[in-house]
Amino acid sequence: MPSRKFADGEVVMGRWPGSVLYYEVQVTSYDDVAHLYTVKYKDGTELALKESDIRSQSSFKHRKSQSSSSSPSRRSSSRSRSRSPGRPARGRRRSASQSREPKDDKKKTIQETSLAPPVLVLFKPSENNTKRYNGEPESTEKNDTSCIILEQKLKPDLEVKRVLEQYSLRSRKDDKKKEEIYSEKKTFVAVKPIEKVPTKTKELEFGGRIGTFMLILGLPATVFYLLSVCKQDDPSLLNFPPLPALESLWDGRVFGICLLWFSLQAVFHLLPIGKVVEGLPLSNGRKLQYRINGFYAFILTAAAIGVLLYFQFELDYLYDHFMQFAVSAAAFALALSIYLYVRSLKAPEEELAPGGNSGYFIYDFFTGHELNPRIGNFDLKYFCELRPGLIGWVVINLAMLLAEMKIHDLSVPSLSMILVNSFQLLYVVDALWNEEAVLTTMDITHDGFGFMLAFGDLVWVPFVYSLQAFYLVGHPTTITWPVAAAITVLNCVGYYIFRSANSQKNNFRRNPSDPKLANLKFIPTATGKGLLVTGWWGFVRHPNYLGDIIMALAWSLPCGFNHILPYFYVIYFICLLVHREARDEHHCKQKYGLAWERYCQRVPYRIFPYIY
């Protein structure tokens, strides 16, 4: 194995990905398997670089001394090019040619700055930055070598256009003036994209290997325990139900219905209806295509259910065999997870999930080893995210409503059951109507598809999220119309916060220059993206989570206060969102560096204003 060239803690010059700009960085670690150095820039950004993209500081000083020994005319040219466009020239002698052509130098500076603004504007360490890597103050002296610009001759205009399109630069008022400058033969900063090589997952979540192993066992056990308790006359969480016979948990007919349901949703997903959109860029720059037809699939499913009811199919069969359906769905999710992990072993490195590439079987099996597993154009993760489980949740709620009417001999459902079904139906329809928004979530862009998402999408969502409706069948609760009106207002408030915050974020991510978002302010980051500091995202850091929690409370209130079981979903949701919030905080701090710290200072509250 080749030996490493640079030691941990050594300050070197690292090339910024996608350019030939070198910045002063500190080596933090080295991956012996991928042969990559993890380096830290002065703005807090951490990246993995190849050894060929790292040079010692002495090599740059040596080149500078060589250039000084050349002819006087070349010496003045070298000095002018050795500085970054953003750094002032102090105490520098100007040659006669320089004094005669100040406008040409100004044009040259504009060219270099405008061609690579994501690096020079956002990534160049500021003179006001007074912190070193170890937290000690740093002086700003003239001989700062934090940014070395390597220059090449003029590239064709097509290359300039390609670079500008690659960074999605906004047009400015002086675009016309800059186009005239580009037409002249000047010196440019050459930008060449480089391939990003995935590294091994170093920071393990969910308690690492032991924690994920316990979750693989604990999540199914939790689902079965909740359903068993809810079926009892006294649905207290401390009233442990007797263990059922194993043969009573499995029914081949029920498993066949589960397979039929999954296949039916897959057929609806493959229908050539709905628009096709591109997802966010992957690490290699490629964008996957997705067909947006979830709402159409929901309409077709509703029509199919209507046909079954017309022909006197007893949908309350779901209630009578609810535990068996949960066991069948869990078995299917486990089989799917095994398939996903086996196929991921042959996936290319660039297609692996950044958070599921630890090299540990249990951990990668749980979190998901492959980022976007596909069979042809059929994206398994995207399909499971919204289709079988989410639409199945609505069907289960409808079955519980019919079961309540049948068991209690009601001509119409109870007001509590109507509220629960209506609130959760609104939530599902909203998700399917805004299906494109899911493409910007961490589930799609960051998390792999493994047991965690497979079990969550196919088992946890339909069988735990429907816990309130399942509870009301065996434990009816009567509420008055004023109480129902108050609960409805609460749900509407939560839904408004949830939807408006998500829409604001998704629109800004896809098109920051949208005139509708002109009133929003943001903090620029080293990645070229912005952090919103006005609107809902200037109120708290995760306003969508706040709306989620308010809605979850409104879903549970129709069940009354006799037992805490219906509020398990609220407790779970708060714990889940606090965990996800902490996870997002850690991820954003690594990704955005000092910009995230500035954002946290502007927006101090995470989920609950003035509380947390």
Description:
With 612 residues, the protein is of the alpha+beta class. It folds into 3 domains: 10-58, SH3 type barrels; 206-478, no CATH class; 479-611, no CATH class. Helices cover 50% and strands 8% of the residues. Helix 16 (415-433) runs antiparallel to helix 19 (467-474). The chain is globular, with a radius of gyration of 29 Å. Residues 62-197 have low confidence and may be disordered. Residues 76-95 have a biased composition (Basic residues). Its EC number is 1.3.1.70. Its main location: cytoplasm. InterPro entries: ERG24_DHCR-like, Lamin-B_rcpt_of_tudor, Sterol_reductase_CS, Tudor.
Secondary structure elements and pairings:
Layout: E1 11-15, E2 21-31, E3 36-40, E4 46-50, E5 54-55, H1 57-68, H2 72-81, H3 96-100, H4 102-115, H5 117-120, E6 147-149, H6 157-166, H7 175-182, H8 208-230, H9 252-270, E7 275-278, E8 289-292, H10 294-310, H11 317-320, H12 322-344, H13 361-367, E9 374-375, E10 378-379, H14 380-386, H15 388-407, H16 415-433, H17 442-445, H18 451-464, H19 467-474, H20 481-510, E11 522-524, E12 530-532, H21 543-556, H22 568-592, H23 594-602
Antiparallel strand pairs: 1-2, 1-5, 2-3, 2-6, 3-4, 7-8, 9-10, 11-12
Rg (CA only): 29 Å
Low-pLDDT residue spans: 62-197
Largest sheet: 6 strands, antiparallel
Strand runs, count: 12
